């Protein structure tokens, strides 16, 4: 047999062990920061700030904890795929930035040098990783894909050149660095615009992959595109409301709208990301991950409800029953502990019924056997 006739198999991609371990370690650290910030906020009570701000921070932290748990599971079960690992790392960095900021605030570091330095660094890392993930999921975008793109950004030389240039890591880091400085040290309006531009970059790259991809690639990227677009739309709405109301005007209306939009934004992000992973099959999760997801969502939901009950009911229990604060907290915590299993069981049946109606449950997953996930 001649040497020309020998065909060697393609080399296997290098494993992402280091990146997976980074995500797993960051996940444990980020969830710990989120839980610490929640506990500190509940203990501080009125000293932490007005009730609407506490409620808004609670929603944000619960959502951050849930999103970091999902990213942790992706890294654990499907992180050997380069695109999956990039997306998991981006999600982890985004929500770690927020949870770490809340934890620093709970420790008394509010807009001091340490807090601003850490926030700027983690914001830069999260923004860079987010745009890089949008360029690489589900497949890496190339110059050719941008040049032949049937989108408005592929029709004009200026946008084509800009998007091609930002595929280079060095130019992307410089651009995100400039936007990070604008966000951290600029006025509120410039900060909002800088954040919006970063989100829009992710939307553009996700959309490029969606338009150029086949049916499988479109299915994988659709809900991530929806996640980024929803975040961009809510950012525009916030900017418009602030501009319409003006600084310092209608404080009660601004508070109500702020809490409502924050709740809508966090719930919408969680729904889109959960749909991408556990419904559309973008990361190919197994029944093991879905069960762990149910466990995480149940914990997040009960934490949020527990915080709300603590704020509104705790004082009434102490006053009516004439018991100590410790006994009232133990009583409320015991009730929620007993409710955990029934709520988790209900979510499991609800998710199984939903996936069954849409043909997403395989025979192996519908029985008692749990098969390993295929990355």
Layout of helices and strands:
Layout: H1 17-44, H2 51-78, H3 82-106, H4 113-136, H5 143-147, H6 152-155, H7 157-165, H8 169-185, H9 188-212, H10 215-245, H11 251-278, H12 287-312, H13 314-321, H14 325-357, H15 363-366
Helix pairs in contact: 1-2, 1-3, 2-3, 2-11, 2-12, 3-4, 4-8, 4-9, 8-9, 9-10, 10-11, 12-14, 13-14
Kindly describe this structure.
By secondary structure, this protein is mainly α. It is built from 15 helices and no strands. The longest helix is centred in the last third of the chain and has 33 residues, at 325-357. It is globular.
The low-confidence runs, each spanning 5 or more residues with pLDDT under 50, are 1-14, 358-375
Gyration radius (Cα, Å) is: 23 Å
Order of helices and strands: HHHHHHHHHHHHHHH
| Total of helices | 15
Overall average pLDDT: 78
Helix content: over 70%
Approximately how much beta-strand content do the residues carry? under 5%
Secondary structural class: mainly alpha
Shape: globular
Number of individual domains: 1
Distance between the termini: 37 Å
Characterize the main sheet: none
Strands, count:
0
